[in-house]
Design goal:
Largest sheet: 5 strands, mixed
Structural class: alpha/beta
Strand content: 15-25%
Helix content: 25-40%
Number of helices: 4
Radius of gyration: 24 Å
Strand order of the largest sheet: 2-8-7-4-5
Order of helices and strands: HEHEEEHEEEEH
Distance between the termini: 20 Å
């Protein structure tokens, strides 16, 4: 009787953990796929850098990617603004503002356009950045499965889900 209660308790714990496990699997692809970009590459966030060329070199940007701004402490800041603030180099209505330390990491957490400027006068010399962020595209199928990928993908996902569910409900005892 005690062994059966223990088995039921284990099974109940496994069932409770199942939603977390499935969420972890779904999110793990996005976490692994995020990229980190050093704004301006080796030149950093500084005056006299062509950030339009930098964007063209590194795009596309996706949800979950990170921008890291490296700058000289006390000489520059990073101000997120709207399109009007970007076009006028106007930081009077910032979305966010960061000026501490020597670097700032910013996560691109939604699709759309992002605008950044330096509010210390350097924006007029080109120290501003505008990027478009897209959803991460779905992974490409392996070359060997291209001919039957439309039918096989749902079956593989169903098989994986069933395997995980079975493992959670019926744990092996050694």
């Amino acid at each position: 009787m005690a062994g059966m209660q223990r088995q039921e308790k284990l099974r109940g714990g496994a069932v409770a953990a199942l939603p977390f496990l499935l969420l972890l699997i779904m999110v793990s692809h996005q976490l692994v796929s995020a990229d980190r970009f050093s704004v301006g590459d080796s030149k950093g966030w500084n005056p006299n850098v062509n950030y339009t060329v930098w964007v063209e070199k590194h795009k596309p940007f996706h949800v979950g990617d990170w921008l890291v701004f490296y700058y000289q402490s006390g000489m520059a800041d990073v101000v997120q603004v709207d399109e009007a603030g970007y076009n006028k180099c106007d930081a009077s209505n910032p979305i966010s503002n960061y000026s501490k330390g020597r670097s700032y990491a910013f996560e691109l957490n939604h699709t759309g356009r992002y605008y950044f400027i330096c509010s210390r006068g350097y924006c007029y010399g080109g120290m501003r950045l505008a990027i478009a962020v897209e959803h991460l595209p779905p992974p490409s199928p392996p070359p060997s499965s291209l001919k039957d990928s439309s039918a096989a993908a749902p079956c593989r996902l169903l098989a994986l889900t069933a395997s995980l569910l079975a493992a959670a409900l019926f744990p092996f005892h050694l």
